[in-house]
Design brief:
Organism (chains A, B, C): Roseibium aquae
Shape of chain A: globular
Helix content of chain A: over 70%
Order of helices and strands of chain A: HHHHHHHH
Keywords (chains A, B, C): Cell membrane, Membrane, Transmembrane, Transmembrane helix
InterPro entries (chains A, B, C): Gly_transporter
Protein name (chains A, B, C): Membrane protein
Oligomer: homotrimer
Pfam family, one (chains A, B, C): Gly_transporter
Structural class of chain A: mainly alpha
């Protein structure tokens, strides 16, 4: 029950992050709805397609209602939400952290293996945002050094590792969420990045 | 039988709209084929994957033959088709209208629920074009205020609503197609748009 | 057994081509991993989703280990690999040739028809690269006149055609691979292109 509510909250948070693309570009309401839905359910949709299980929102369409409600809310209040600034990014960070663990957990529940579970966690947490940026023609999170995909990676990875080590899944989930949130929070508040690749030779045309 | 012919016609119309991207950029024949196929079958492919049913063109490969035939035709006659101007846009509008209803109808036939059916109608009608524009690096229809995705939405929505109200499915289908065509036609001939979001606060970096 | 090793090699070669995007842009290690995995397994993933069979790397996660190993290797040695220049492009060409035939063969093995098999060969060989370029915001191979998608097309097409004519599948596979490699090699060494479409009328706004 609590998990279910958290799940809707996760979709809602990502839908907010999606519809902000539409508000910044000054698009129409249908674009709000499009980007809210694409970002809100994109990652989970990819996960379910790859796992070969029914896509979650075709089974329970309340997820779509959440995206619709967020779009309507954002159409009227996006300028207030934008003004919040960091709270929006923290909400997005919570979504990222929660989904990295929930994606990995869903993959493990259908009998997949370790690396697949980690990858599914990362995909669930980040694919919606990457899709949104690609369609909108903006550089996606993967092209920036800021911790983002890596935070999802750490969350999904630590959940899977702790589960395999025999820890209770609630403890493993909590640890994964806290780690992902800590890393992403560091990126938001302190600009944490990973070291980037430095070319040690002049670039040649390929 | 009539429905089947309409279905091939829909793929053909979208394939024309796809191959025009290749002709405008002065690409080679394989690019004609690629964009014709991507645009012609992209929306229906997404719909079938999400619904978990066999992808339509893996069952009946005549859809691929349609895309091939359109590519060959366009390779020789794209400049004549381009010269038509508005007729091309009207053909595309017919495809959009027909597919919004057919996508929703297919979703309802496999037992999905209301919102899912509407979403499938919109996806079938618009995803091929969005995919084409994203791969070609052009701004997609979703980024423009012109009625496009919204016309598909109105078509799929009214079809689903009328069906639920107990209307005969043929009447519901006709009403949905006419409404979508009317809205998209208004966008083509009169430049109809939806109101866009106006920011009421200075933009802040997120 | 040999086939299996060739399959891992194909994923590895594409993963190298993917991680080079990350090294050229000076991104972090997670981006190396992301682009290596997206490019390495993207084409085969699309093929399996469209065919409705379990996605290959969810069944055998050694494919993911290959992508991980390539990413680590490239993180340390990308500048040496870049310096090789043409050998990288030839390795990519080998991947393209091998996958065009293997994609078509997998499609035929699950009972699909001729055109579908050819399309699956092309998709397996080229989709990973197209996805990589689209996410990275670069013009993809399909937008260039150079033989690339067309080489995959020739490889998959000749494999399917020879199989239907009753040739032994190993001979058909060899012929398809050699043909694709010959065409792609010609593009690399001699700049072979297909003729492009020349507009014969002034462009009109659509």
């Amino acid at each position: 029950m609590l998990l279910q509510i958290l799940d809707y909250l996760g979709v809602a948070v990502f839908a907010v992050a999606g519809s902000i693309v539409a508000s910044r570009r000054g698009l129409d309401f249908i674009a709000f709805l499009f980007f809210a839905t694409l970002t809100g359910i994109g990652g989970g949709t990819l996960r379910d397609l790859l796992l070969g299980v029914p896509v979650f929102w075709t089974v329970d369409e309340r997820y779509l209602l959440v995206c619709l409600a967020v779009s309507i809310f954002m159409w009227f209040f996006a300028h207030h939400i934008e003004r919040l600034g960091k709270p929006v990014r923290w909400a997005d960070a919570c979504g990222l952290a929660a989904y990295s663990v929930m994606g990995a957990a869903k993959a493990m529940s259908v009998g997949d293996t370790v690396l697949v579970a980690v990858l599914m966690g990362v995909a669930t947490a980040t694919f919606g945002g990457i899709l949104r940026d690609t369609v909108a023609g903006e550089p996606s999170a993967i092209m920036k050094p800021e911790l983002y995909v890596s935070a999802a990676f750490a969350g999904a990875g630590s959940y899977v590792a702790l589960t395999l080590l025999g820890f209770n899944i609630w403890i493993a989930a909590l640890a994964g969420i806290v780690l992902a949130l800590f890393l992403r929070g560091g990126a938001i508040e302190r600009g944490w990045t990973l070291p980037v690749y430095k070319s040690r030779s002049p670039k040649e045309p390929n």
